[in-house]
Amino acid sequence: MSDVEPTIDHPSILVDRVSAGYRGHEVARHLSLSIERGSRTALVGPNGSGKSTILKTLARLIKPLSGSVYLNGQDIGRLPTREVARQLAILPQVHEVPPELTVLELVSQGRFPHVGALKMLRRQDDEAVQEAIRLTGLEHLMHRSVDTLSGGEHQRAWMALALAQKTDLLLLDEPTTFLDVAHQLDLLGLVSGLNRDHGVTVVIVLHDLNHAARFADRMIAVLEGEVVADGPPTEVLTPGLLRECFGVEAWVTKDPETGAPVCIPHTTISAGNDEGEGGVGRGHGRPGSSSGHPRP
Amino acid sequence: MTATAAGLTPRRRVARSTLRYRWWVAVLAIALVALMLLYVMLGPVLFTPDLVFKALVGQPEEPLHRLAVREVRLPRVLMAALAGAMLSSSGAFLQSVLRNPLAAPATVGITQGAVLGAVGALVLTFGSEGALNDLNALVPVAAIAGGLAAGGLVYGLSYRRAGADPLRLILTGVVVAAGLSAATSFLVLLSGSHADSIIRWLVGSLSTRTWDHLVFLLPVAALAVPLVAAAIPVGNALQLGDATASNLGLRTELARAGVFATAVVLAAGSVSVAGGIAFLGMMGPHLARTLVGSDLRRLVVGSALVGAIILVAADLLARTFSLDWIPLLNVETESGSRVPVGAFTALVGAPFFIYLMRRPLRAQA
User: Fold this and answer.
1) Which domains are present in chain B?
2) CA-to-CA dists, residue B29 to A89, A100, B35, B233, B267, angstroms
3) What is the ipTM of this complex?
4) More confident call, A152 vs A211
5) Under an 8 A CB cutoff, do B244 and A110 touch?
6) Which residues of A touch B237 (CB under 8 A)?
7) A13-230 falls under which CATH superfamily?
8) How distant is the Cα of B2 from the closest Cα of chain A, in angstroms?
9) Domain boundaries, chain A
10) I need a labelling partner for B81 at 20 to 30 A (CA). Which of A40, A57, A142, B351 fits?
11) pTM recorded for the entire structure
């Protein structure tokens, strides 16, 4: 993937030898990958593995330390940021919302990249905003202040903001974290529907491996900023990977309905002592020697 | 996705929040006009509304009426409304873009910079003819320059590599404000016998303001109009956090600098005619937010109206209330026992500030 001369049919995102991170702290090094149009990709990895940093780099929220990210064949660092905002939307992990801002007012902001600042002075309740509110099931909460919503409603309101941007590419950073299991499934179902019915390309960071395996057609496992496995869930979600990447022993079985792999982690693998970044032994831990959870 | 029949019915009904907004704008606007009329009616000579009207259209029953209404009370009340609106909407922008409820022109040093400019110009020109007659054109110009310089200084000092972080902006502002106040105190000490006219700038006063002062303010207000129009949508996106603003296609640092500059122009203009009015820049947007919400398209309008109302009301009090009313207090001041309007806003503002800080902080998920 050294030659990045644009071709006719560009992938949605092309990452070319990117080193990502913050000044003085490189999180990922020489990362190259390509996200195909219309695909559903899940980024998984333990805490601190760099998956969020990678996602933010894809969305140009963080500048790569070196290398380039290409969005639909164009260098994202050179595109005007408003043009990028028309092509991709990212749902960040942490949100800030002023008090007394209604759901409708929040979601309307999603039209900003399309209509521009001056037209935002007018009311924005056009189709895209209404559709985003409908898809997230927020019609009855449209005029409520966002800061009075429950955790799940809150997350859906922010999801609606990203949807109102009407982009072909959606990047989601742990969107299910604060949700109960029903709302988690609803949100993943919503994203699946967008992918299936509207061809939206989705890259999602997920903590729940089984959700990832069920939702995604491609899983990328990241450890210490490096891709350690990349492929369909059946190839990625294996006992070996769970051991290497997450430091757990697990049983892996099959979802009786979809055939997607399902894992049941049962024991953590101690790294010997607790020193060192990440704290997990990369594959050479001693199974069964660890803490807390007795083997059933 | 699963569109029920109910979900497809078109909603052409006007939203409740929109009705609420229109209602409050109407109420506030009527209150402001009524208050301004009352302001012109009350005074050493009481006028009935029809006398005010006759004086305004130039057919006064006595020439004195025309003078009192058109040359004294009318410019002063217009200035109070304009200065109050500018200061309060400046606070609305600062609170949104710095994402901090305590942000205000006076907490980030803009007010103090403008006051230092005004006081500096007064002290410099003390020797010269007509320096103290309040028609000294240098004073408002220096106030605006001082406010802009202070805003630039705060922004510049907060700037690190990636940009000016909102929290650092506020903390830097507090420090710069303290430094500028100290410099002003120093000037007051130097000025000796003229302290009285200087204190009117420190506390904020509208006494002896005429059409000439309004003429100074108008170009600033005119410059502010396009700035405000651009800063409203940009500030709306920016108040959702840098990541979201960037996601929406804003260059966040440029956007923040632009909205901050708008707030600086508004506040500096206000201080250049009214002095360092206390608390209004923080109180106005808070009151407005409880009425019309946080969308800047509404909040700026609401804040401007609330700010205008508060300053007109406070100045009506200031004009009417005399220290002579308090027995045992034998004051003889140059300004005729009148208390500067800023003292009244401070009197209301200080408890409000305490109330604000005692309120439970909202969780920001």
Assistant:
1) 64-323+333-364 (1.10.3470.10)
2) 40, 22, 10, 23, 22
3) 0.83
4) A211
5) no
6) 109, 112
7) P-loop containing nucleotide triphosphate hydrolases (3.40.50.300)
8) 9
9) 13-230, 238-296
10) B351
11) 0.86
